[in-house]
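Input set for joint prediction.
Command: fold jointly, output tokens.
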Amino acid sequence: GQQLNQSPQSMFIQEGEDVSMNCTSSSIFNTWLWYKQDPGEGPVLLIALYKAGELTSNGRLTAQFGITRKDSFLNISASIPSDVGIYFCAGQGNTGNQFYFGTGTSLTVIP
Amino acid sequence: DAGVIQSPRHEVTEMGQEVTLRCKPISGHNSLFWYRQTMMRGLELLIYFNNNVPIDDSGMPEDRFSAKMPNASFSTLKIQPSEPRDSAVYFCASSRLLSGGYTFGSGTRLTVV
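tokens >
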């Protein structure tokens, strides 16, 4: 399957700080998704991106579809304790219909 | 909208036993996906259905795993016989379109002892 690498693998930040994470692929994707998973729950869709260069916000979250179509970025501004969780990227290309998921970035926010 | 409903939430079984996981997708969603999540391998797609038809089962680890979708509102994932290495969280997800974002269920945590 496709390889999606997320970085960093984990982050420990102070409440109020901004967060940046990214996802890179070996292949070109047409759609990028960002999910958040809370402990004991399934991933929840945060943002969907459909066009290269697209910048989309959802509250304090902003995600971008990379120009090369091989990467995507997620930023969280002014982090709060409830931002804690694992963030996954997912990409969908031309071949096949499934989304491939990244390895996840674990975020810990220290109050 | 009740979301994607999975049952049971937790399952503990002995090696060799049959395990059946259940999923009810969101009404109106015509694509359904089964994923397995482990620390080592992350989220792995096992199989997905479109309009109740299996499209890609290349992720099913071996013949011990089987999945069915007899109608638009129900799917099962069966493991027979189960092995300790099958221990993981199994997620079901559904979407309206194959290109749309998935909605995940809360998962079934399977422990095979």
